[in-house]
């Protein structure tokens, strides 16, 4: 009896795709890894089969955040092939822009990289592909902070920039931030990260079917920059923010990232002699061995820094995330009689107060800005002194584009205190600025918390918090948002919801974006939106409680905290958790 041939299965197609990928992968190590996974999957190993299905589920999405994902073979992973495909797409976009705008020379791209696994390799592969396509390329000399790359973009007048980093993602990840400037993007957004429609145009120029070994890659031809870029960044920061002798005692942590050397050099040259880096976290280490998650905001991430601060009798802790574009600050809170990290909105208010004072001293010209999910306190502060305040969509790529910007922040510990130097959040210059603020307060016998309490007394106690729901898949976001749209909460924190805004329809002049905004009668505000980089749903909560005297501030804080707890509970119920 002749048996009919079995029909090809989905896994057969998957295996064939994986074979083709491995055969054309120019990275021998990655090809060998894929071959091992493929062999195990064919022999029935469920874990290997699941990994193959995930890695070949589709191309790693390119958007305003660039690329970010786990390192490994396959189109849905960060690897040499995906980097080559992306670099080739960026080259096509830049060359098309050059032709359209009539450049008199080749487009220029500057490339930086952090110390994560494969970052230097991905930077080199990007340079090789861009040079082969006819693009002029300059590469930073060593792993350096993202702000140094953002500075180099503007300093060199580059048309494009690439920063190979996964920021504060887990050790297994890497990523690819893309900037545009020079002759491609002019005005306030020159040198900032990409926004629509550029992201879609670059994405459309990426050929996800191009075999890795078929993409032209030059063996040389790019410019290796020297240490002068880092030196010019430090010198420019000192010129912008000033220096003097200070007795402030500071503990810093680089969180195993690339910001340690630059921040220490900047603080030292600014006159801070008492700076103690956390030794265990000062040098770059792609495995981030002392933290479970390399983000200063994560519980336990700055424990070593706090222990060091207590041992050194420090006044201030400054923590950067691994690529040093974010800045976290901790100090001793007299009300709690304990060290604690300031929330991103609290630090934003302190920076905002400092920036508005500088604006007033200089005549009042300029703009302060924050993202829509950040506290409303900066807006109230600006209004009280007649300064211009603007609200943007979430993401520093929007904040950095504001015309006349003098200070911008987002609640996720992102601050821009020197927009004349970079057009991105900058945890290094923010570190120097907060040191200056704390040093001046210490000389007056005051603390950062005294500044906050004074602002709360004037504008109301603005307390913020987040409810973050990590999901198994990005596909779960849509049904949860649909649930909130069809059955919105009628009450939050014991106060009636009086306004509901679907942010996809635009809000207060902002472009449409995914999210929902709820405002209650007692002025509490909740914004629910998906994360832009992870399978998460985030709720940003803010309450406002008035205090008519200094003695009432602590009671107003307690009232706000109670409201936040109730709002968190109400949101969980509304989401069906």
- Indicate the CATH architecture of the largest domain: 3-Layer(aba) Sandwich
How many distinct helices? 18
Question: What's the CATH class of the largest domain, please?
Answer: Alpha Beta
Count of domains? 3
Helix content: 25-40%
CATH fold field value of the largest domain: Alpha-D-Glucose-1,6-Bisphosphate, Chain A, domain 3
* Biggest beta sheet summary: 7 strands, mixed
Beginning-to-end CA distance, first to last residue? 57 Å
- Please compute the radius of gyration using only Cα atoms: 25 Å
Structural class: alpha/beta
Approximately what portion of the residues adopt beta-strand conformation?
Answer: 15-25%
Overall shape: globular
Explain this structure to me?
This protein is α/β, with parallel strands linked by helices. It has 3 domains: about 20-25 and about 55-225, Alpha-D-Glucose-1,6-Bisphosphate, subunit A, domain 3 (Alpha-D-Glucose-1,6-Bisphosphate, Chain A, domain 3, 3-Layer(aba) Sandwich); about 250-460, Alpha-D-Glucose-1,6-Bisphosphate, Chain A, domain 3; about 460-575, 2-Layer Sandwich (TATA-Binding Protein), CATH 3.30.310.50. The chain is built from 18 helices and 22 strands. It has helices spanning about 10-25, 30-40, 45-55, 80-100, 120-130, 145-155, 200-205, 230-240, 260-270, 280, 305-310, 345-360, 375-385, 395-400, 425-445, 450-460, 475-485, 555-575; strands at about 65-70, 110-115, 135-140, 160-165, 175-180, 190-195, 225, 245-255, 270-275, 315-320, 325-335, 340, 365-370, 390, 405-410, 415, 460-470, 490, 495-500, 515-520, 525-530, 535-545. The strands form 4 sheets. Strands 1, 2, 3, 4, 5, 6 and 7 form a 7-stranded mixed β-sheet that branches. α2 (about 30-40) crosses α3 (about 45-55) and α4 crosses α7 (about 200-205).
């Amino acid at each position: 009896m002749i048996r009919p041939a079995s029909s090809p299965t989905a896994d057969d197609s998957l295996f064939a795709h994986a074979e083709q990928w491995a055969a054309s992968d120019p990275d021998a190590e990655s090809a060998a890894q894929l071959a091992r996974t493929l062999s195990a999957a064919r022999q029935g190993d469920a874990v290997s089969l699941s990994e193959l299905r995930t890695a070949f589920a589709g191309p790693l999405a390119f958007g305003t955040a660039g690329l970010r994902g786990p390192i490994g073979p396959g189109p849905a992973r960060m690897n040499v092939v995906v980097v080559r495909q992306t670099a080739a797409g960026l080259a096509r976009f830049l060359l098309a822009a050059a032709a359209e705008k009539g450049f008199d020379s080749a487009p220029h791209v500057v490339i930086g990289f952090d110390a994560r696994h494969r970052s230097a390799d991905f930077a080199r592969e990007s340079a090789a592909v861009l040079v082969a396509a006819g693009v002029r390329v300059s590469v930073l000399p060593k792993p350096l902070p993202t702000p140094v790359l953002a500075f180099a973009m503007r300093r060199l007048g580059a048309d494009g920039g690439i920063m190979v980093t996964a920021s504060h993602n887990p050790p297994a990840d890497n990523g690819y931030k893309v900037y545009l400037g020079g002759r491609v993007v002019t005005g306030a957004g020159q040198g900032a990260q990409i926004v629509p429609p550029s992201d879609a145009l670059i994405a459309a120029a990426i050929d996800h079917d191009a075999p890795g070994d078929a993409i032209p890659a030059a063996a040389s031809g790019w410019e290796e920059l020297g240490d002068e870029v880092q030196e010019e960044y430090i010198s420019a920061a000192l010129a912008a923010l000033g220096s003097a002798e200070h007795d402030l005692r500071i503990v810093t942590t680089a969180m195993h990232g690339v910001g340690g050397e630059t921040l220490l050099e900047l603080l030292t040259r600014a006159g801070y002699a008492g700076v103690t880096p956390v030794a265990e976290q000062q040098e770059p280490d792609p495995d981030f061995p002392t933290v479970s998650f390399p983000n200063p905001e994560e519980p336990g991430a700055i424990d070593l820094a706090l222990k060091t601060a207590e041992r050194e009798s420090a006044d201030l802790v400054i923590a950067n995330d691994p690529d040093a574009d974010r800045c976290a600050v901790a100090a001793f809170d007299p009300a709690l009689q304990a060290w604690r990290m300031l929330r991103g909105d609290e630090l934003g208010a302190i920076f905002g107060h400092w920036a508005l004072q500088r604006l007033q001293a200089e005549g009042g010209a300029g703009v302060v800005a924050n993202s829509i999910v950040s506290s409303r306190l900066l807006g109230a502060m600006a209004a009280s002194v007649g300064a211009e305040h603007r609200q943007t969509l979430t993401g520093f790529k929007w904040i950095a584009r504001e015309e006349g910007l003098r200070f911008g922040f987002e609640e996720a510990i992102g601050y821009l205190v020197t927009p004349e130097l970079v057009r991105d959040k900058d945890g290094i210059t923010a570190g120097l600025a907060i040191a200056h603020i704390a040093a001046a307060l210490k000389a007056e016998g005051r603390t950062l918390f005294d500044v906050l309490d004074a602002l709360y007394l004037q504008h109301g106690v603005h307390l913020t918090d987040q409810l973050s729901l990590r999901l198994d898949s990005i596909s779960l976001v849509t049904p949860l948002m649909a649930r909130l749209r069809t059955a919105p909460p009628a009450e939050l924190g014991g106060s009636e919801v009086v306004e509901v805004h679907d942010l996809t329809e635009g809000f207060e002049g902002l472009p449409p974006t995914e999210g929902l905004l709820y405002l209650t009668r007692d002025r509490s505000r909740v914004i629910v939106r998906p994360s832009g980089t992870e399978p998460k749903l985030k709720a940003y909560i803010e309450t406002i409680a008035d205090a008519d005297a200094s003695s009432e501030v602590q009671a107003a804080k307690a009232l706000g905290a109670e409201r936040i707890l109730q709002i968190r509970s109400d949101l969980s119920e509304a989401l069906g958790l």
